[in-house]
Specification:
Length: 72
């Protein structure tokens, strides 16, 4: 989910930053919003790749102990 969200944010950021489509948002500068979305998307991509790498290299060891019947 993190990689997909990062890609979507990067694409939206590039569309707004490079003025591919002109949106009339009165209270926000389109290009500034585009650059913010682009930076957030790149950060999301980097974090998701780092977290997936850590998850892939972590080894879990499971130890099971079987105890006999309780001694009286």
């Amino acid at each position: 989910m993190g990689i997909g969200l990062g890609i979507v944010l990067v694409i939206l950021g590039l569309v707004l930053a490079l003025n591919v489509l002109n949106f009339d948002i009165g209270f926000v500068d389109d290009s500034a919003l585009g650059w913010i979305l682009l930076i957030v998307g790149v950060v999301a991509l980097v974090l998701s790749v780092v977290m997936n790498r850590q998850r892939r290299t972590t080894h879990h060891v499971e130890e099971r102990r079987i105890d006999g019947p309780p001694r009286a």
